[in-house]
Hints:
Chain A is mainly beta. Chain A contains no helices and 11 strands. In chain A, strands 2, 4, 5, 9, 10 and 11 form a 6-stranded mixed beta sheet that branches. In chain A, strands 1-3-8-7-6 form a 5-stranded antiparallel beta sheet, with no helix packed on it. Chain B has no helices and 11 strands. The interface between A and B is medium-sized, with 27 and 32 residues.
Amino acid sequence: DQQVKQNSPSLSVQEGRISILNCDYTNSMFDYFLWYKKYPAEGPTFLISISSIKDKNEDGRFTVFLNKSAKHLSLHIVPSQPGDSAVYFCAASGAGGGADGLTFGKGTHLIIQP
Amino acid sequence: DVKVTQSSRYLVKRTGEKVFLECVQDMDHENMFWYRQDPGLGLRLIYFSYDVKMKEKGDIPEGYSVSREKKERFSLILESASTNQTSMYLCASSRLAGGGEQFFGPGTRLTVL
């Protein structure tokens, strides 16, 4: 049973436009959510996170929105740049602060078109 | 700058061989993790450790074991490699109460023939 779902395996966006990546979760015990970016043949790198007590967190071009009632979060990238082309993973952790590992979605491959 | 290193970027082994994947972190993190990444499946947790000599099973521990003799080092062991263990293996570490942010190594692409 998948607890973190990224239903879009891929997404194509034009350079300069907004990229919106979506993530749904089923486990109501999750209280911390993270987005990771991964290039081929490299490890994932942390992008941005949000605690369940917040509904928005911004860091430069990246904003994460959390809707707890809908168990949904999204990552907005504005404006999208060619270097943003990568696989993006949504991840969640429970009350243990992530000490027992993160639960990852399957990833969304973002392609930024010139 | 924080760093997680893995002993090999690419590894080719034969079925039945014993395989050791090593991971070292220089951030004095308490928690360390091993994941595998497969196309269409995302990252899946194999084992994790929150202290020296402590280990806990993740979601897919079958066919694997781990060792943590020192705080900075976490090893993944495939006792008898099989072809279905061909995968990208990723090591990560985090602080004890870090809220979940994990720092990943570059990964080891293991091929079992």
